[in-house]
Amino acid sequence: ASSCGTQLSCTRRHFMPILAATAATEHFTDIFADWLLSHSEIFEGTEPRLRTMWQWHAAEEAEHRCTAFDVYKALGGNEEWRIRIFHYVTVTFIGDVMLQTMHNLWRDGSLFKFSTWKSGYQLLLSKDGLFRSNIGHWKAYKKADFHPAQQSAVLSEQWLQNNTSAYSLVGRNA
Fold it and tell me: Which alpha helices (DSSP H) does the chain contain, by range?
């Protein structure tokens, strides 16, 4: 006899936290992508093809930002657990990004340079920085009536529309 009852309930119980984590991660990537699209200066000096790739990737985040969230809700996902897992994803996501960045800066030889830390502060924690300027979007996810579609997709839609010659659709009859 299974400790879960039925196979479906067992699968669902183990799948729901993963789905909630996916929805939370998609929220992070969506708000960070929107920030990137509104701060094109971040790409100054970047090789043009890499700039296009990153901007395209940021723009396409809005296309699927609702999927995991909608499936979680449709399957009856628990709100308390959605928020708990969002907090866990917050710590894990930011922690992983910071560790990877520190590792890269170490290998690059710039980890202990004052200019690195100064520019990192500006990028992340200044009034218009990646983290500080997105606190409202972070808090919004925790509201009971939140839905990812409430976030604006204007920058994503504009970038995709204005740059159709910079990328090509794959798998569609365009």
Answer: 7-38, 48-60, 67-74, 79-108, 114-125, 135-141, 154-162
How many other CB atoms sit within 10 Å of the CB of residue 121?
Answer: 11
Give the C-alpha separation, 21 to 86, whole Å. 7
pTM for the model: 0.84
**Among residues 135, 31, 22, 12, which one has the least CA distance to residue 89?**
22
CA 29 to mean position of chain CA atoms = 1
Identify the segments of the chain with pLDDT beneath 70: 1-12, 172-174
What is the SS3 assignment for 100? helix
User: In the prediction, which pLDDT does 111 show?
Assistant: 95
CA gap 99, 38 in Å, rounded: 25
Residue 43: count other Cβ atoms within 10 Å of its Cβ: 15
Residue whose C-alpha is closest to residue 89's, from 142, 39, 133, 13: 142
Asked whether 93 and 25 are in contact (CB, 8 A), the reply is: yes
* pLDDT value of position 1: 45
Name residues whose C-beta falls within 8 Å of residue 10's C-beta, 6 or more positions apart in sequence. Answer: 2, 3, 4
* Torsions phi, psi for 96 (to 5 deg): -65, -40
Whether 140 contacts 146, CB under 8 Å: yes
Residue 83: what pLDDT?
97
